[in-house]
Write a structure and sequence with these properties.
By secondary structure, this protein is mainly α. It folds into two domains: 16-203, Up-down Bundle (Growth Hormone, Chain: A), CATH 1.20.1250.20; 205-456, MFS general substrate transporter like domains (Growth Hormone, Chain: A, Up-down Bundle), CATH 1.20.1250. The protein has 20 helices and two strands. It has helices spanning 18-49, 53-69, 71-81, 83-103, 107-134, 141-169, 172-193, 206-218, 220-236, 238-241, 243-251, 257-261, 263-278, 284-303, 305-312, 325-355, 361-366, 370-390, 399-409, 424-459, and strands at 316-318, 321-323. Strands 1-2 form a two-stranded antiparallel sheet. Helix 1 runs antiparallel to helix 5 and helix 9 (220-236) packs parallel to helix 14.
Length: 461
Protein backbone atom coordinates (compact mmCIF):
# COMPACT_ATOMS: atom_id res chain seq x y z
CA UNK A 1 0.00 0.00 0.00
CA UNK A 2 1.50 3.31 -1.10
CA UNK A 3 2.17 5.71 1.70
CA UNK A 4 0.58 9.11 1.51
CA UNK A 5 2.87 12.10 1.91
CA UNK A 6 1.88 15.66 2.58
CA UNK A 7 2.30 18.14 -0.24
CA UNK A 8 5.41 20.26 0.21
CA UNK A 9 4.86 23.78 1.45
CA UNK A 10 5.15 26.41 -1.25
CA UNK A 11 8.55 28.07 -1.53
CA UNK A 12 8.21 31.64 -0.29
CA UNK A 13 9.70 34.39 -2.42
CA UNK A 14 9.84 38.16 -2.66
CA UNK A 15 9.21 38.04 -6.40
CA UNK A 16 5.91 39.53 -7.58
CA UNK A 17 4.48 40.46 -10.99
CA UNK A 18 5.75 43.67 -12.61
CA UNK A 19 2.37 45.31 -12.13
CA UNK A 20 2.77 44.94 -8.37
CA UNK A 21 6.02 46.92 -8.38
CA UNK A 22 4.69 49.59 -10.74
CA UNK A 23 1.60 49.98 -8.56
CA UNK A 24 3.82 50.45 -5.52
CA UNK A 25 5.95 52.99 -7.39
CA UNK A 26 2.79 54.96 -8.17
CA UNK A 27 1.71 54.64 -4.53
CA UNK A 28 5.07 56.02 -3.37
CA UNK A 29 4.60 59.10 -5.56
CA UNK A 30 0.98 59.58 -4.46
CA UNK A 31 1.73 59.30 -0.73
CA UNK A 32 4.71 61.67 -0.99
CA UNK A 33 2.50 64.18 -2.83
CA UNK A 34 -0.40 63.87 -0.40
CA UNK A 35 1.54 64.10 2.86
CA UNK A 36 3.73 66.91 1.54
CA UNK A 37 0.60 68.89 0.77
CA UNK A 38 -1.40 67.83 3.82
CA UNK A 39 1.21 68.77 6.45
CA UNK A 40 1.17 72.34 5.08
CA UNK A 41 -2.48 72.59 4.06
CA UNK A 42 -3.86 74.48 7.07
CA UNK A 43 -1.08 77.08 6.90
CA UNK A 44 -1.47 77.44 3.14
CA UNK A 45 -5.22 77.98 3.40
CA UNK A 46 -4.67 80.49 6.19
CA UNK A 47 -1.61 82.42 5.00
CA UNK A 48 -1.81 82.28 1.20
CA UNK A 49 -5.53 81.82 0.49
CA UNK A 50 -6.88 83.97 3.32
CA UNK A 51 -9.16 81.59 5.21
CA UNK A 52 -9.51 82.22 8.94
CA UNK A 53 -8.37 79.58 11.42
CA UNK A 54 -11.95 78.38 11.89
CA UNK A 55 -12.70 78.34 8.15
CA UNK A 56 -9.47 76.46 7.41
CA UNK A 57 -10.35 73.98 10.17
CA UNK A 58 -13.80 73.25 8.76
CA UNK A 59 -12.55 72.99 5.17
CA UNK A 60 -9.58 70.74 5.97
CA UNK A 61 -11.68 68.62 8.33
CA UNK A 62 -14.32 68.05 5.66
CA UNK A 63 -11.64 67.25 3.08
CA UNK A 64 -9.81 64.72 5.28
CA UNK A 65 -12.91 63.05 6.73
CA UNK A 66 -14.70 62.56 3.40
CA UNK A 67 -11.46 61.23 1.93
CA UNK A 68 -11.71 58.37 4.45
CA UNK A 69 -15.41 57.82 3.72
CA UNK A 70 -15.36 57.62 -0.09
CA UNK A 71 -12.88 54.76 -0.85
CA UNK A 72 -15.44 51.98 -0.34
CA UNK A 73 -17.71 53.49 -2.97
CA UNK A 74 -14.83 54.44 -5.28
CA UNK A 75 -13.53 50.88 -5.07
CA UNK A 76 -16.87 49.63 -6.37
CA UNK A 77 -16.63 51.96 -9.36
CA UNK A 78 -13.06 50.81 -9.99
CA UNK A 79 -14.26 47.20 -10.10
CA UNK A 80 -16.70 48.18 -12.84
CA UNK A 81 -14.41 50.21 -15.10
CA UNK A 82 -11.16 48.34 -14.43
CA UNK A 83 -8.26 49.19 -12.15
CA UNK A 84 -6.05 50.73 -14.84
CA UNK A 85 -8.68 53.16 -16.09
CA UNK A 86 -9.57 54.06 -12.52
CA UNK A 87 -5.94 54.81 -11.65
CA UNK A 88 -5.35 56.89 -14.78
CA UNK A 89 -8.42 58.94 -13.92
CA UNK A 90 -7.35 59.24 -10.27
CA UNK A 91 -3.82 60.46 -10.99
CA UNK A 92 -5.09 62.86 -13.66
CA UNK A 93 -7.49 64.34 -11.11
CA UNK A 94 -4.70 64.60 -8.52
CA UNK A 95 -2.35 66.32 -10.97
CA UNK A 96 -4.99 68.87 -11.93
CA UNK A 97 -6.17 69.34 -8.34
CA UNK A 98 -2.73 70.01 -6.86
CA UNK A 99 -1.79 72.35 -9.72
CA UNK A 100 -5.07 74.23 -9.34
CA UNK A 101 -4.52 74.56 -5.58
CA UNK A 102 -1.11 76.14 -6.10
CA UNK A 103 -1.88 78.34 -9.12
CA UNK A 104 -5.09 80.14 -8.23
CA UNK A 105 -4.92 81.41 -4.68
CA UNK A 106 -8.63 82.12 -4.34
CA UNK A 107 -11.09 80.69 -1.84
CA UNK A 108 -13.43 79.24 -4.50
CA UNK A 109 -10.63 77.57 -6.48
CA UNK A 110 -9.12 76.19 -3.26
CA UNK A 111 -12.42 74.50 -2.38
CA UNK A 112 -12.75 73.18 -5.94
CA UNK A 113 -9.15 71.92 -5.97
CA UNK A 114 -9.57 70.08 -2.67
CA UNK A 115 -12.75 68.44 -3.97
CA UNK A 116 -10.87 67.20 -7.05
CA UNK A 117 -7.96 65.93 -4.92
CA UNK A 118 -10.42 64.24 -2.57
CA UNK A 119 -12.07 62.24 -5.37
CA UNK A 120 -8.74 61.29 -6.94
CA UNK A 121 -7.27 60.18 -3.63
CA UNK A 122 -10.38 58.16 -2.76
CA UNK A 123 -9.98 56.20 -6.00
CA UNK A 124 -6.29 55.46 -5.41
CA UNK A 125 -6.70 54.04 -1.89
CA UNK A 126 -8.70 50.87 -2.68
CA UNK A 127 -7.19 50.25 -6.13
CA UNK A 128 -3.52 50.18 -5.10
CA UNK A 129 -4.17 48.04 -2.01
CA UNK A 130 -6.42 45.81 -4.15
CA UNK A 131 -3.64 45.42 -6.70
CA UNK A 132 -1.19 44.38 -3.98
CA UNK A 133 -3.67 41.76 -2.79
CA UNK A 134 -4.47 40.42 -6.26
CA UNK A 135 -0.81 40.19 -7.28
CA UNK A 136 -0.15 37.70 -4.47
CA UNK A 137 -1.51 34.34 -3.41
CA UNK A 138 -2.54 33.43 0.14
CA UNK A 139 0.97 32.27 1.01
CA UNK A 140 2.56 35.53 -0.10
CA UNK A 141 -0.21 37.96 0.92
CA UNK A 142 1.51 39.02 4.13
CA UNK A 143 4.76 39.79 2.30
CA UNK A 144 2.95 41.74 -0.41
CA UNK A 145 1.05 43.85 2.10
CA UNK A 146 4.18 44.45 4.19
CA UNK A 147 5.86 45.91 1.09
CA UNK A 148 2.78 48.01 0.39
CA UNK A 149 2.67 49.43 3.93
CA UNK A 150 6.41 50.09 3.88
CA UNK A 151 5.97 52.06 0.65
CA UNK A 152 3.15 54.07 2.26
CA UNK A 153 5.39 55.00 5.20
CA UNK A 154 8.37 55.83 2.99
CA UNK A 155 6.15 58.11 0.90
CA UNK A 156 4.73 59.76 4.00
CA UNK A 157 8.16 60.29 5.56
CA UNK A 158 9.83 61.64 2.43
CA UNK A 159 6.88 63.83 1.44
CA UNK A 160 6.76 65.62 4.78
CA UNK A 161 10.53 65.96 4.93
CA UNK A 162 10.75 67.54 1.49
CA UNK A 163 7.80 69.81 2.28
CA UNK A 164 9.84 71.34 5.10
CA UNK A 165 12.69 72.18 2.70
CA UNK A 166 10.36 73.59 0.04
CA UNK A 167 8.47 75.70 2.55
CA UNK A 168 11.66 77.19 3.96
CA UNK A 169 13.31 77.94 0.62
CA UNK A 170 10.49 78.55 -1.87
CA UNK A 171 7.17 79.03 -0.06
CA UNK A 172 4.03 77.05 0.69
CA UNK A 173 2.51 77.27 -2.80
CA UNK A 174 5.51 75.44 -4.33
CA UNK A 175 4.62 72.33 -2.32
CA UNK A 176 1.42 72.03 -4.36
CA UNK A 177 3.43 72.11 -7.60
CA UNK A 178 5.70 69.43 -6.19
CA UNK A 179 2.61 67.35 -5.37
CA UNK A 180 1.28 67.90 -8.89
CA UNK A 181 4.61 66.76 -10.33
CA UNK A 182 4.66 63.59 -8.25
CA UNK A 183 1.08 62.84 -9.28
CA UNK A 184 2.04 63.32 -12.92
CA UNK A 185 4.89 60.81 -12.51
CA UNK A 186 2.39 58.35 -11.01
CA UNK A 187 0.06 58.98 -13.96
CA UNK A 188 2.82 58.22 -16.46
CA UNK A 189 3.88 55.06 -14.60
CA UNK A 190 0.27 53.86 -14.61
CA UNK A 191 -0.44 54.76 -18.23
CA UNK A 192 2.66 53.08 -19.66
CA UNK A 193 3.44 50.21 -17.31
CA UNK A 194 0.42 49.21 -15.22
CA UNK A 195 -1.61 46.23 -16.45
CA UNK A 196 -5.05 45.22 -15.16
CA UNK A 197 -5.14 42.44 -12.59
CA UNK A 198 -8.79 42.69 -11.62
CA UNK A 199 -11.93 41.01 -12.89
CA UNK A 200 -14.05 43.90 -14.11
CA UNK A 201 -17.76 43.71 -13.46
CA UNK A 202 -17.47 41.88 -10.15
CA UNK A 203 -18.00 43.06 -6.62
CA UNK A 204 -20.78 44.85 -4.78
CA UNK A 205 -23.14 47.40 -6.20
CA UNK A 206 -23.42 50.92 -4.81
CA UNK A 207 -26.85 50.03 -3.41
CA UNK A 208 -25.42 47.02 -1.58
CA UNK A 209 -22.62 49.17 -0.12
CA UNK A 210 -25.13 51.78 1.04
CA UNK A 211 -27.30 49.14 2.72
CA UNK A 212 -24.21 47.69 4.40
CA UNK A 213 -23.26 51.12 5.73
CA UNK A 214 -26.74 51.58 7.19
CA UNK A 215 -26.50 48.20 8.94
CA UNK A 216 -23.15 49.16 10.43
CA UNK A 217 -24.43 52.53 11.66
CA UNK A 218 -27.43 50.83 13.25
CA UNK A 219 -25.11 48.75 15.47
CA UNK A 220 -24.85 51.02 18.51
CA UNK A 221 -22.08 48.95 20.10
CA UNK A 222 -19.86 49.13 17.04
CA UNK A 223 -20.61 52.81 16.42
CA UNK A 224 -19.78 53.62 20.05
CA UNK A 225 -16.41 51.91 19.71
CA UNK A 226 -15.69 53.82 16.50
CA UNK A 227 -16.45 57.17 18.14
CA UNK A 228 -14.38 56.36 21.25
CA UNK A 229 -11.29 55.41 19.26
CA UNK A 230 -11.81 58.51 17.12
CA UNK A 231 -10.73 60.44 20.22
CA UNK A 232 -7.29 58.84 19.92
CA UNK A 233 -6.92 59.75 16.25
CA UNK A 234 -8.20 63.27 16.84
CA UNK A 235 -5.18 63.90 19.06
CA UNK A 236 -2.81 62.18 16.64
CA UNK A 237 -4.35 64.34 13.89
CA UNK A 238 -2.96 67.46 15.56
CA UNK A 239 0.33 66.64 13.84
CA UNK A 240 -1.40 68.16 10.80
CA UNK A 241 -4.16 70.31 12.29
CA UNK A 242 -2.49 72.36 15.06
CA UNK A 243 1.20 71.58 15.43
CA UNK A 244 2.61 73.20 12.23
CA UNK A 245 0.67 76.44 12.73
CA UNK A 246 1.39 76.49 16.47
CA UNK A 247 5.15 76.08 15.97
CA UNK A 248 5.36 78.84 13.36
CA UNK A 249 3.29 81.29 15.40
CA UNK A 250 5.17 80.64 18.64
CA UNK A 251 8.71 80.26 17.24
CA UNK A 252 8.67 81.54 13.67
CA UNK A 253 9.87 79.81 10.52
CA UNK A 254 12.97 77.65 10.48
CA UNK A 255 11.92 74.98 12.98
CA UNK A 256 10.49 72.64 10.31
CA UNK A 257 7.32 71.27 11.92
CA UNK A 258 7.13 68.91 8.92
CA UNK A 259 10.21 67.12 10.27
CA UNK A 260 8.73 66.98 13.76
CA UNK A 261 5.69 65.18 12.34
CA UNK A 262 7.98 62.46 10.99
CA UNK A 263 8.92 61.40 14.52
CA UNK A 264 5.58 59.57 14.75
CA UNK A 265 6.05 57.17 11.80
CA UNK A 266 9.70 56.67 12.77
CA UNK A 267 8.69 55.46 16.25
CA UNK A 268 5.96 53.26 14.77
CA UNK A 269 8.37 51.62 12.33
CA UNK A 270 10.90 50.95 15.11
CA UNK A 271 8.51 49.70 17.80
CA UNK A 272 5.35 48.27 16.23
CA UNK A 273 6.78 44.76 15.70
CA UNK A 274 8.18 44.25 19.24
CA UNK A 275 5.11 45.81 20.86
CA UNK A 276 2.79 43.67 18.74
CA UNK A 277 4.70 40.63 20.02
CA UNK A 278 4.52 41.96 23.58
CA UNK A 279 0.72 42.37 23.58
CA UNK A 280 -0.07 39.23 21.58
CA UNK A 281 -1.73 37.57 24.59
CA UNK A 282 -3.58 40.65 25.82
CA UNK A 283 -7.27 41.06 25.16
CA UNK A 284 -7.78 43.64 22.39
CA UNK A 285 -9.61 46.06 24.69
CA UNK A 286 -6.70 45.94 27.15
CA UNK A 287 -4.16 46.91 24.49
CA UNK A 288 -6.47 49.65 23.19
CA UNK A 289 -6.92 50.80 26.77
CA UNK A 290 -3.13 51.20 27.13
CA UNK A 291 -3.09 53.34 23.97
CA UNK A 292 -5.94 55.52 25.24
CA UNK A 293 -4.21 55.82 28.62
CA UNK A 294 -1.00 57.07 26.98
CA UNK A 295 -2.56 59.47 24.45
CA UNK A 296 -3.64 62.23 26.92
CA UNK A 297 -0.04 62.50 28.14
CA UNK A 298 1.16 63.20 24.60
CA UNK A 299 -0.80 66.47 24.62
CA UNK A 300 -0.11 67.16 28.30
CA UNK A 301 3.66 67.05 27.75
CA UNK A 302 3.34 69.71 25.03
CA UNK A 303 1.04 71.81 27.21
CA UNK A 304 3.72 71.93 29.91
CA UNK A 305 6.27 73.67 27.66
CA UNK A 306 6.00 77.00 29.58
CA UNK A 307 6.96 75.15 32.77
CA UNK A 308 10.02 73.66 31.07
CA UNK A 309 10.94 77.07 29.64
CA UNK A 310 10.71 78.63 33.13
CA UNK A 311 12.88 75.91 34.63
CA UNK A 312 15.59 76.06 31.97
CA UNK A 313 15.51 79.81 31.41
CA UNK A 314 16.36 79.40 27.73
CA UNK A 315 17.42 76.91 25.07
CA UNK A 316 18.47 73.41 26.09
CA UNK A 317 21.87 72.03 25.09
CA UNK A 318 21.74 68.30 24.33
CA UNK A 319 25.30 67.50 23.29
CA UNK A 320 25.94 69.71 20.28
CA UNK A 321 22.22 70.16 19.62
CA UNK A 322 20.46 73.26 20.89
CA UNK A 323 16.73 72.78 21.44
CA UNK A 324 14.03 75.28 22.27
CA UNK A 325 11.96 73.97 25.22
CA UNK A 326 8.84 73.94 23.05
CA UNK A 327 10.57 71.78 20.42
CA UNK A 328 11.72 69.33 23.10
CA UNK A 329 8.18 68.92 24.43
CA UNK A 330 6.94 68.32 20.89
CA UNK A 331 9.62 65.67 20.31
CA UNK A 332 8.63 63.85 23.50
CA UNK A 333 4.89 64.25 22.90
CA UNK A 334 5.01 63.06 19.30
CA UNK A 335 7.22 60.11 20.26
CA UNK A 336 4.64 59.13 22.87
CA UNK A 337 1.97 59.33 20.17
CA UNK A 338 3.92 56.83 18.10
CA UNK A 339 4.27 54.55 21.12
CA UNK A 340 0.52 54.72 21.81
CA UNK A 341 -0.25 53.94 18.18
CA UNK A 342 1.83 50.77 18.43
CA UNK A 343 -0.51 49.51 21.16
CA UNK A 344 -3.67 50.55 19.31
CA UNK A 345 -3.20 49.55 15.69
CA UNK A 346 -2.37 45.82 16.05
CA UNK A 347 -5.44 45.16 18.21
CA UNK A 348 -8.04 47.55 16.83
CA UNK A 349 -8.85 45.37 13.83
CA UNK A 350 -9.22 42.34 16.10
CA UNK A 351 -11.52 44.26 18.45
CA UNK A 352 -13.55 45.53 15.50
CA UNK A 353 -14.05 42.02 14.15
CA UNK A 354 -15.37 40.84 17.54
CA UNK A 355 -18.11 43.47 17.50
CA UNK A 356 -19.50 42.22 14.17
CA UNK A 357 -22.52 39.92 14.08
CA UNK A 358 -21.90 36.40 12.70
CA UNK A 359 -21.32 36.46 8.95
CA UNK A 360 -20.65 40.20 8.75
CA UNK A 361 -17.02 40.45 9.84
CA UNK A 362 -15.90 41.53 6.38
CA UNK A 363 -18.55 44.22 6.23
CA UNK A 364 -17.54 45.67 9.58
CA UNK A 365 -13.83 45.53 8.80
CA UNK A 366 -14.53 47.47 5.62
CA UNK A 367 -16.16 50.27 7.56
CA UNK A 368 -13.73 50.49 10.49
CA UNK A 369 -12.26 53.54 8.72
CA UNK A 370 -15.34 55.41 9.94
CA UNK A 371 -13.25 56.11 13.03
CA UNK A 372 -11.01 58.30 10.86
CA UNK A 373 -14.06 59.97 9.32
CA UNK A 374 -15.19 61.18 12.74
CA UNK A 375 -11.65 61.83 14.02
CA UNK A 376 -10.47 64.01 11.15
CA UNK A 377 -13.57 66.19 11.12
CA UNK A 378 -13.46 66.70 14.89
CA UNK A 379 -9.69 67.19 14.98
CA UNK A 380 -9.50 69.97 12.42
CA UNK A 381 -12.69 71.79 13.38
CA UNK A 382 -11.78 71.91 17.08
CA UNK A 383 -8.23 72.93 16.17
CA UNK A 384 -9.51 75.90 14.20
CA UNK A 385 -11.50 77.25 17.13
CA UNK A 386 -8.68 76.62 19.63
CA UNK A 387 -6.09 78.32 17.44
CA UNK A 388 -8.34 81.33 17.07
CA UNK A 389 -8.86 81.51 20.83
CA UNK A 390 -5.38 80.79 22.19
CA UNK A 391 -2.82 81.09 19.37
CA UNK A 392 -4.39 83.61 16.97
CA UNK A 393 -3.35 84.52 13.46
CA UNK A 394 -0.91 87.46 13.86
CA UNK A 395 -2.27 89.01 10.67
CA UNK A 396 -5.62 89.43 12.41
CA UNK A 397 -4.10 91.34 15.36
CA UNK A 398 -3.64 95.12 15.66
CA UNK A 399 -0.48 96.49 14.08
CA UNK A 400 1.19 97.25 17.41
CA UNK A 401 0.55 93.73 18.69
CA UNK A 402 1.82 92.24 15.45
CA UNK A 403 5.04 94.23 15.73
CA UNK A 404 5.51 93.00 19.29
CA UNK A 405 4.99 89.44 18.05
CA UNK A 406 7.63 89.90 15.33
CA UNK A 407 10.06 91.37 17.86
CA UNK A 408 9.47 88.43 20.22
CA UNK A 409 10.27 85.93 17.46
CA UNK A 410 13.52 87.83 16.90
CA UNK A 411 14.35 87.50 20.61
CA UNK A 412 13.75 91.17 21.33
CA UNK A 413 11.06 90.98 23.97
CA UNK A 414 8.20 88.87 25.34
CA UNK A 415 5.32 87.47 23.31
CA UNK A 416 2.13 89.58 23.24
CA UNK A 417 -0.58 88.87 25.79
CA UNK A 418 -2.68 87.32 23.00
CA UNK A 419 -0.35 84.28 23.14
CA UNK A 420 -0.01 84.04 26.92
CA UNK A 421 -2.29 81.01 27.09
CA UNK A 422 -1.41 79.37 23.77
CA UNK A 423 -0.52 76.14 25.57
CA UNK A 424 -4.15 75.82 26.74
CA UNK A 425 -4.84 74.39 23.29
CA UNK A 426 -2.95 71.26 24.29
CA UNK A 427 -4.74 71.01 27.62
CA UNK A 428 -7.97 70.83 25.61
CA UNK A 429 -6.69 67.86 23.60
CA UNK A 430 -5.40 66.18 26.75
CA UNK A 431 -8.99 66.47 27.98
CA UNK A 432 -10.20 64.78 24.78
CA UNK A 433 -7.82 61.90 25.48
CA UNK A 434 -9.00 61.53 29.08
CA UNK A 435 -12.62 61.53 27.89
CA UNK A 436 -11.84 58.80 25.32
CA UNK A 437 -10.14 56.64 27.96
CA UNK A 438 -13.03 57.01 30.42
CA UNK A 439 -15.52 56.31 27.61
CA UNK A 440 -13.66 53.07 26.80
CA UNK A 441 -13.90 51.99 30.45
CA UNK A 442 -17.64 52.72 30.41
CA UNK A 443 -17.97 50.87 27.09
CA UNK A 444 -16.24 47.81 28.51
CA UNK A 445 -18.38 47.82 31.65
CA UNK A 446 -21.69 48.26 29.81
CA UNK A 447 -20.95 45.68 27.11
CA UNK A 448 -19.61 43.22 29.69
CA UNK A 449 -22.80 43.61 31.75
CA UNK A 450 -25.01 43.12 28.69
CA UNK A 451 -23.07 40.04 27.57
CA UNK A 452 -23.17 38.56 31.08
CA UNK A 453 -26.96 38.96 31.31
CA UNK A 454 -27.39 37.40 27.86
CA UNK A 455 -25.19 34.48 28.84
CA UNK A 456 -27.20 33.99 32.04
CA UNK A 457 -30.48 33.96 30.12
CA UNK A 458 -29.10 31.49 27.59
CA UNK A 459 -27.92 29.17 30.36
CA UNK A 460 -31.23 29.32 32.24
CA UNK A 461 -33.40 26.16 31.84
Amino acid sequence: MASETAAPAPQLTWRFPRTFWFANAAELCERAAYYGMFITLVRYLNIDIGFSDVEAGWLTGAFASILYFLPTFMGILADKVGFRRALVLAFALLTVGYALLGTFQLKFTAVLALAVIMVGGAIVKPVISGTAAKCSDSAHRARAMSIFYAIVNIGSFSGKGLAGVLNERLGLEQINYYAAGMSLVALLVTAFFYRNVDAAGTGKTLAQAARGLLRVLANIRFLSLIVIVAGFWAIQGQLYASMPTYVERMLGKGYKPEWLANINPLIVVLLVVPITHLVRRLRPESSIGIALLIIPFTALVIALNPVLAALTGGPLHVGRVVLHPLILTFIVGIALQGLAECFLSPKFYEFTSKQAPPGEVGLYMGYQSLTQFFAQLFAFVLSGYLLRGYCPDPQKLPEAVRQQWQAALAGQGPMPAAYAHAHYLWYAFAGVGVAAFLALLAFKYVTWSIDRRRAARSAAP
